[in-house]
Amino acid sequence: MNATETIFALALASNNQPQHHFQKSWTQIKKLGEAVFSPIYLIPCRDGIGADYWNAACLLKSHLSVDQMICQLKQMEAESGRTRPSHHISLDIDLIAWGAELNTMHFNPKKLPLALDVKIPMFDLWQDVRFSYPLHQFPVIDLPA
């Protein structure tokens, strides 16, 4: 990894036209650096009011600063038509952690404690104890090319 690169751990979610928004956001994220994505899981809405969510995680190596990354993620959400508050989420991308190496990542305190819909997909990419979770039966969704 280049000295100016940072690893960003991202959590993605959508329950409003999720296939469209995931395909577009994955394309945009890949333009920011070297990206690896987890499988997509169909997980019920946290508060039980909205539709089930597509949830995935991404580890992204990028030359962007943390502030630049947050700005890019918020811009992607806005371009998707994201409105707050709402139970119909076109796109939610959260910065969970960042750092030079996975074993020295800084966790975003605003995202702690980590929700199950973050832990499950993130554990597929990063087997850290902070992402451990009980066995689950959530279906995996294939994102068509």
TrEMBL record:
The keyword Transferase applies. Pathway: Cofactor biosynthesis; tetrahydrofolate biosynthesis; 2-amino-4-hydroxy-6-hydroxymethyl-7,8-dihydropteridine diphosphate from 7,8-dihydroneopterin triphosphate: step 4/4. One of its GO terms (biological process) is folic acid biosynthetic process. Pfam families: HPPK (PF01288). InterPro entries: Hppk, Hppk_sf. Residues 10-127 form the 7,8-dihydro-6-hydroxymethylpterin-pyrophosphokinase domain. This is 2-amino-4-hydroxy-6-hydroxymethyldihydropteridine diphosphokinase. The lineage of its organism: Bacteria, Pseudomonadati, Pseudomonadota, Gammaproteobacteria, Moraxellales.
